[in-house]
Amino acid sequence: MSQAFVPEFPATEAPTMEWDAWGVAESRRHLSPQITTLLQQALGVSAEQSPPPTEADAIVRETALGTPLVHALEDLLGPDNVRTDTATRLRHAGGKSTPDLLRRKSTGEQDAPDAVLLPGSHDEVLALLRFCAAEGIAVVPFGGGTSVVGGVDPARGRFGSVVALDLRRLDALVDLDPVSGVATLQAGATGPQAEQLLGEHGFSLGHFPQSFQFATIGGFAATRSSGQASAGYGRFDDMVEWLRVATPAGTLDLGRGPASAAGPDLRELFVGSEGTLGIITEVGLRVHPVPEHTAYQAWSFPDFETGAAALRTVVQSGSAPTVMRLSDEAETGINLAMSGDIGGDSPTSGCLAITTFEGTDAHVRARYAEATALLAAAGGTALGEGPAQSWEHGRFDAPYLRDALLNAGAIAETLETATRWSNLANLRTSVTKALTESLAAQGTPALVMCHISHTYQTGASLYFTVVCAQAADPLSQWAAAKRAAGDAIIAAGGTITHHHAVGRDHRPWMESEVGALGTQVLRAVKDAIDPAGILNPGKLIP
Amino acid sequence: MSQAFVPEFPATEAPTMEWDAWGVAESRRHLSPQITTLLQQALGVSAEQSPPPTEADAIVRETALGTPLVHALEDLLGPDNVRTDTATRLRHAGGKSTPDLLRRKSTGEQDAPDAVLLPGSHDEVLALLRFCAAEGIAVVPFGGGTSVVGGVDPARGRFGSVVALDLRRLDALVDLDPVSGVATLQAGATGPQAEQLLGEHGFSLGHFPQSFQFATIGGFAATRSSGQASAGYGRFDDMVEWLRVATPAGTLDLGRGPASAAGPDLRELFVGSEGTLGIITEVGLRVHPVPEHTAYQAWSFPDFETGAAALRTVVQSGSAPTVMRLSDEAETGINLAMSGDIGGDSPTSGCLAITTFEGTDAHVRARYAEATALLAAAGGTALGEGPAQSWEHGRFDAPYLRDALLNAGAIAETLETATRWSNLANLRTSVTKALTESLAAQGTPALVMCHISHTYQTGASLYFTVVCAQAADPLSQWAAAKRAAGDAIIAAGGTITHHHAVGRDHRPWMESEVGALGTQVLRAVKDAIDPAGILNPGKLIP
């Protein structure tokens, strides 16, 4: 049993991600010559492109905001908090999906918000929303800019201009109730900032999605984020006790924790609203003491179906570990090849599963014993701590690796869904088939890997990673594959997104999720609080 | 360790409750002469009223539905399924709060729905909603009629007539997915019917609120019911995977289990909508195998604060029992006196707590050990199984006892709220004070008891029971006390209802819960799907 995992924090100040890649330059990954050769031989990947434009070369759309409007915004927020310089605009030009980065690497004109606004209080957000509604300026809440579904695209809708809202100045721990385990955080705090603020008081949120290092509390809430420890601490939406939302029609304070029967839960309308119904400025969150202990155990299962059934047994017992995940055969093999650990602790075939257990010593011991007995009885072979700790150590690296693959001439993209346990195999087969066939038909045979990263009593998520060579037009190449996968997900009874949210990219499938009448309900809510329609146009609501 | 608790089911056919009392006549309770004497001496209760009207004497408002409308409804549903007889109308005349029963016992005219409709399918519900919207007839979904907040009052709103919807014909188990643990039940199935249908396949819902024997699946969902085993199986809203709702604008199928990030969770708008936004006709529910084992342990704590802190420690450990509850000093003492168990197993002072643990043998043993260690360390004295099993045995009896007290000239009513752990003592003191002072000022000193019956990581519910002598006008007497308690709850930061819902009685406090803008959002949703406003007028939405 080891000491609790403490994430490595960057400095207190939140870093800004690179304009044309995930994350920060210091963490950039490079592919080994062996991997490059393997990609070339197995998938026909070759990096014979002209080099992408540097920031100095990038052609950025000119701001459409005239000087009078900029001055009026400066009057509201202060001159330092209205940014129209190209560097800032370019860093708020969109999210970090593979298509986003492909567009960023193109030589054409880069779209960008006409200004980036940095409000310093809830009231300033209210004021700027009223101003933008009156002037007809679209507003895109930027969060940490980690969207992989086009959620922070600078779309103008029917308006002539668009501003991005960056809440980085709202990064405080407003209140901590240690008895109840409830912390109130401002929406602009990033994952590491939140953990640092809470950690000073001995608490943790326990929300570690892959976007953790850059994404914000407000963004987690607005997109129904789900972290890698969701089996233990729940999805982010489970953690939200209440939220404060600024809208063009005023302020909403929603959530009557710990539980209430006072009508519909309006909190659940704004959690997941992706900036289309309001700007979340403060969130009350369930937190827990920093765990005293963490136990790790990795497992090997002969195949994915056996492994999935084993995970199901554990979660349905009501005693899930803190983290519980399972890679399929392809992902297990590739991860092994990437880590260069062949001949080490890891299995050379079958499927790798990871479990971790956090809490007090007694709690960890009891849970570990219960889960271990169930997983062994369900056909698992214990592999020890090693592979589980390795997974934890590298768990925020994948987007950097994606960028390295992209630069090497590959497409490496992910998509995810969820369904009931009884439908999991069917959904996995359908989506794999759709991706494989679509990309093969385009002359770029793909490697499709899958893992389960979030388990529930009634079902689980499926997370797919696709790697193939870039075709001549990689944007349309991926668009076709993504369309095939989305259609397959809906046809097979999955949800179009388990934790990536809807944004622009999943919007075509929203009506399949909620129906025509559900769409009408969403529009009615939006009309009631954003009658001008300035809030994140073109996202989420069909 | 005992065998699992299996609720005693009535016959497969759901019984209809008495028109002027809770439940069925066979289960009626009578007070012992000692209790009657005690009530008289301690609270000045005396039963010197004229006897209430019998059913034959009751004066029932005439039906306002003319023959052509009745015939049109008969064409839609079949002649047997449109009831205008007095007996049926009287049995759908409202819920079962103390004010409801006081009105039922009055000699004035009894209000009642103009007809009781028994649709046999979702499509019939759709058709009758369209008909009622076109004809301007208010529609009250009746569920099992167990509301204690005026939720099923035959209110007409701006319409001339009102019908009650009784979904008793929709009582089937539509589908069971044993692998995923998801059952689809029609909304009219009662608690015992649902358990019986599931039990035949080895499954259980595990939802046992005090209304269990008569309330329906649709009603549980529409009111955010919470059962006595909520610590183990969650609130009813936690169990809802998806629901089908019939509205005047069409059908909604909501919920993309097990989890989704596809926007706002519209399911959470209709769960808790209390018939104001649509009629729930089918619900997909998380179920679990009938537990193999149940362990019981009762505890005594020196005082309520110590006991509450102990429960908090257990639930915050992440390992809650299936049931965990704590009575305050007053309730502990009164229950002891009522049970006649003085000198038996139960403690004669302090506070009684109950824990039960359900599941597999290994799960029960592990959880029992973990909780027992925590409760003992937090100052609890273990009392053994006896008092916990006694509680379970009598757990559906309280409403019958309330009726006996009412007939003896007492008011015995309950109300409930919830708040964070750090605010629990303050809320309990405030509400107790408000009730005590209001009733004392009216010349009827009251006994106010309290228990915690639902615990969460961040807080708990408080359930108050009030007993006092009936004043000359008991309806206004209780209305004043209830108003004082509701105002105290909101002022002290509680929710106006933890699991009784809003109905008519809590509606004055709804705007305090969701704010003016939240109210506007609710109205916008209602206007979008019920533009005529026929659905349960006067309830929930201010």
Description:
Two copies of one chain form a homodimer. By secondary structure, chain A is of the alpha+beta class. Helices cover 35% and strands 20% of the residues of chain A. Chain A is built from 18 helices and 21 strands. In chain A, the strands form five sheets. In chain A, strands 1, 15, 16, 17, 18, 19, 20 and 21 form an eight-stranded antiparallel β-sheet that branches. A five-stranded antiparallel β-sheet of chain A has the order 8-9-13-11-12. A four-stranded mixed β-sheet of chain A has the order 3-5-7-6. The first copy, chain A, starts with a strand and ends in a 13-residue tail after the last helix. In chain A, 58% of the residues are buried. The model of chain A is unreliable at 1-11 (pLDDT under 50). At the A-B interface, strand 12, helix 10, helix 13, strand 19 and strand 21 of A face strand 12, helix 10, helix 13, strand 19 and strand 21 of B. Chains A, B: Its EC number is 2.5.1.26. Chains A, B: It holds the Pfam family FAD_binding_4. Chains A, B: GO terms for molecular function: alkylglycerone-phosphate synthase activity. Chains A, B: Belongs to the FAD-binding oxidoreductase/transferase type 4 family. Chains A, B: InterPro entries: Alkyl-DHAP_Synthase, FAD-bd_oxidored_4_C, FAD-bd_PCMH, FAD-bd_PCMH-like_sf, FAD-bd_PCMH_sub1, FAD-bd_PCMH_sub2, FAD-linked_Oxase-like_C, Oxid_FAD_bind_N.
Radius of gyration of chain A using CA atoms only: 23 Å
Q: Which secondary-structure class do the elements of chain A indicate? A: alpha+beta
Q: What is the approximate shape of chain A?
A: globular
| % residues in beta strands of chain A | 15-25%
Helix share bin of chain A: 25-40%
**DSSP helix count of chain A?**
18
Distance between the termini of chain A: 50 Å
Oligomer: homodimer
> Spans of chain A of 5+ residues with little confidence (pLDDT < 50)?
1-11
